[in-house]
Design brief:
The complex is a heterodimer of chains A (405) and B (321).
Chain A: H1 3-28, E1 36-42, H2 49-68, E2 80-86, H3 91-104, E3 108-111, H4 115-126, E4 132-134, E5 150-152, H5 157-174, E6 181-187, H6 190-202, E7 209-216, H7 224-233, E8 237-241, H8 244-256, E9 263-267, H9 275-280, H10 282-285, E10 289-292, H11 300-311, H12 319-337, H13 342-350, E11 366-367, E12 370-371, E13 377-382, E14 385-390
Parallel strand pairs in A: 1-2, 1-3, 3-4, 4-5, 6-7, 6-8, 8-9, 9-10
Antiparallel strand pairs in A: 10-13, 11-12, 13-14
Chain B: H1 3-18, H2 25-50, H3 59-76, H4 80-104, H5 109-129, E1 139-140, H6 155-178, H7 180-190, H8 192-197, H9 202-228, E2 230-231, H10 233-236, H11 239-252, H12 259-282, H13 288-303, H14 307-320
Antiparallel strand pairs in B: 1-2
The chains are: A alpha/beta (405), B mainly alpha (321).
Chain lengths: 405, 321
């Protein structure tokens, strides 16, 4: 019962201190225009902490880059201040943090990572007409709810999966149709189940036979039974869609039990295009293909960022270029708006044709909040590196398929 | 428990109801979450605290309430208020069904606890797979603020609604605790055989307790759904809510009228204050509230075996001496 008066007193003290600092600040920094706050919402603790951390690396790099290049031109070189909020890997905390960011007066929010967090947080931001730029969350429902504040730079589930199926067929046809039978292994959450359902209907239309669909929970601690099932089914192709830990476990178990299909073709996988996996388990990762988000491997800024991240001892993953690009997109919108005004920034995002991002999408064009040019790429682990194999105009390597061929 | 003991609780809720005039939206949002957990914990308290039937699966009721309101609105276009009422009724029904199955099988103590956990998990897996619950993609209630939709443009109104519900359940609990039904619950908790020998219909009392408990926790679920407007199986039927209501009751004092509310406030309040305070001193420390959460629980179990209420009572006796 005593906690409440203490809270108010502390909050009061905090506000008083903050207020004094704020009143004092203009005197000290008269020459500098007020910084523009951008909110970054990431799951920094909990089950998705690894991804949240990667997202933060990207966003912070973008802020450093923009501020280093002289800040926001249209606002007299105003600096960007990133306000980082922790969604604690669940939508409820995400919503609470949106309220906090609203209180901080951010001009827009970037991030969310997981679809449930993006769905709930963008809706919470919609209450305040606060622009929300989704970094990763792929659920199609994120941009199909008629929320005018929500934008997604990256492709959604529908786009990724149709590209995945299309590229798989092209790949298989190109190699003389070595793969006929498929087993789907998926986590039982949003992505995995949705993807499995789609593959089950799409693949048979193109001459593939789906032998079995195996679901597993996240987290799963043992993949032996799934590996044994794979051994008896002997599929030509394995299509896994799981999070990092489960896929690493599955591929290692398969390696140990010497189960080697002609190809492992992942879609939106948590590990298949993750350097940590490639470096820590090079044998298991070799030849694994993925259809996923990835930076433009021919973009100089992307190459420089990747080198910078790796030099700091961190692993590169798609979260980094996506958050980097999203923060730059928002900064560009503020520049276009000419003011840190939400309504104007919202308008600027809606009509944005920004091409300064580092994703292979071309200039942005938002239709109902979804970037129409967004598309996934296909990657493959080759010689301890992750190479882009499709689409051809972006690719920096050729596919190695079938693996045993 | 006399009516006089109820005043501190009602005064506390009145104080919370006044906060919207001074506090920020962040604080209101935080309080809303705490009060919803407190309400769910009040439900647990009837069954676990008063009747002594420890449940690890109150998520079964919370999720049923939440899904019922959401599904009725989204799939059948039913008004949200009717959805709320239906959610509460369904919560009571699910409670009664789980109770009928497990109490008739004479499950007690840890066996009952494990069975409730199993029911909640089964419901979670079903909700994750079924189409009507949106499967793993979950359900998103459309944002359309308006009193008729049980959505309010201002956080304050929703806070008042939840605070009023918590206050209502507080009064209900006090009334039960003082009455014949409360005495029967305690008799069943202390010694079932003795209660039966005294003519208490043990099965009937337990069934009424679990149905009431389910209804209250389901109400919390409905309000949760209306507040966050998003649900998936892990939110609605996830173990988090079962654990939170359990801890709130244990920390606050199970089997006391005010315990669950105090427990929920203490549990989240201290964590949040630690986060804000440390944030001011050393900058943001991700996860510090969870560390405090754990430390608090260890301390409470070590030093306050009867919860905050027990500690306060002991303090009161010490001062009176």
């Amino acid at each position: 019962m005593r906690t409440l008066p203490t809270t108010t007193r502390r909050a009061l003290l905090g506000t008083a201190a903050g207020g004094t600092a704020l009143l004092a600040a203009p005197g000290l920094l008269r020459a500098q225009p007020a910084p523009v706050k951008i909110g970054l919402l990431q799951p920094l603790t909990g089950a998705l902490a690894q991804d949240g951390d990667l997202g933060r690396i990207g966003a912070e790099a973008a802020v450093a880059k923009i501020n280093g290049d002289g800040g926001l031109r249209a606002l007299g070189g105003a600096k960007i201040e990133l306000v980082v909020a922790d969604a604690r890997s669940n939508p409820e905390a995400g919503v609470q943090e949106v309220e906090k960011l609203q209180g901080e007066g951010v001009v827009a929010i970037v991030g969310g990572f997981a679809s449930p967090i993006c769905l709930a947080a963008s809706q919470a931001a919609a209450r305040y007409d606060l622009p929300y730029v989704v970094d990763v969350g792929v659920a199609d429902s994120i941009v199909s709810r008629g929320l005018t504040n929500t934008f997604r730079l990256a492709p959604g589930f529908g786009t990724v999966t149709s590209a995945a199926v299309e590229n798989l067929i092209r790949l298989n046809d190109g190699a003389g149709k070595p793969c006929k039978t498929v087993v789907l292994v998926h986590e039982d959450g949003l992505f995995g189940s949705g993807l499995a359902k789609l593959m089950q209907t799409e693949l048979p239309k193109h001459g593939f036979e789906v032998l079995e669909t195996i679901a597993h929970p996240t987290p799963a601690r043992d993949m032996n039974n799934i590996a044994l099932r794979l051994r008896s089914l002997r599929p030509d192709l394995l299509i896994p869609s799981s999070y990092y830990g489960e896929f690493v476990l599955l591929s290692r178990t398969m390696r140990q039990q010497r189960i080697r299909p002609k190809g492992i073709y992942a879609v939106l996988n948590g590990a298949a295009s993750n350097y940590r996996f490639v470096k820590e388990f090079p044998d298991a990762a070799l030849g694994v293909m993925d259809c996923n988000h990835w930076h433009d491997p021919k973009n100089a800024e992307a190459i420089a960022l990747k080198a910078q991240v790796e030099a700091s001892g961190k692993f590169w993953a798609y979260n980094i270029p996506l958050n980097y690009s999203c923060v730059k997109l928002v900064a560009d919108a503020v520049n276009r708006a000419g003011a840190a005004d939400r309504a104007k920034v919202l308008q600027a995002l809606t009509t944005s044709d920004y091409s300064g991002h580092i994703m292979p999408y071309g200039p942005t064009r938002f239709v109902n909040g979804q970037n129409a040019g967004a598309r996934p790429v296909n990657t493959q682990v080759q010689d301890g590196d992750i190479k882009v194999i499709f689409p051809t105009e972006v690719a920096d390597s050729r596919p190695v398929f079938p693996i045993q061929g | 428990m006399s009516a006089r003991d109820l005043w501190p609780g009602l005064a506390l809720l009145a104080l919370i109801a006044l906060l919207p005039f001074v506090a920020s939206n962040t604080a209101l949002n935080f309080l809303l979450s705490v009060l919803i957990v407190a309400l769910a914990a009040q439900g647990w308290n009837i069954l676990g605290g008063y009747a002594g039937q420890l449940s690890f699966g109150h998520a079964a009721f919370f999720g049923t309430g939440a899904y019922a309101t959401a599904i009725l609105q989204l799939r059948f276009g039913v008004n949200a208020w009717i959805g709320l009422a239906a959610g509460i009724a369904l919560g009571a029904l699910v409670g009664w069904a789980i109770g009928a199955l497990s109490f008739r099988a004479r499950l007690r103590g840890s066996y009952f606890a494990l069975v409730t956990l199993a029911f909640a998990e089964v419901l979670r897996i079903l909700a994750n797979a079924a189409d009507v619950t949106g499967g793993a993609a979950g359900l998103l209630i459309r944002l359309s603020p308006g009193v008729a939709n049980l959505q309010f443009p201002s956080r304050a109104v929703f806070l008042w609604l939840v605070a009023a519900t918590v206050a209502g359940v507080l009064v209900l609990t006090a009334w039960i605790a003082r009455g014949r039904f409360g005495a029967q619950l305690v008799a069943v908790r202390e010694n079932e055989d003795a209660a039966r020998a005294l003519g208490v219909d043990v099965l009937g009392v337990k069934l009424r307790a679990i149905a009431l408990s389910g209804a209250i926790t389901a109400a919390a679920g409905c309000l949760y759904a209306q507040n966050f407007l998003y649900l998936d199986a892990n939110i609605a039927y996830g173990t988090w809510i079962s654990v939170e209501v359990l801890i709130a009751c244990v920390l606050g004092g199970a089997g006391t009228v005010l315990g669950p509310v105090l427990g929920a406030l203490a549990l989240h309040g201290v964590g949040e204050i630690a986060k804000i305070a440390l944030g001011h001193i050393v900058g943001p420390v991700p996860g510090v509230d969870l560390i405090v959460f754990g430390a608090l629980l260890v301390l409470a179990i070590a030093f306050l075996p009867r919860g905050v209420m027990g500690g306060l009572r002991r303090l009161g006796q010490g001062l009176a001496r």
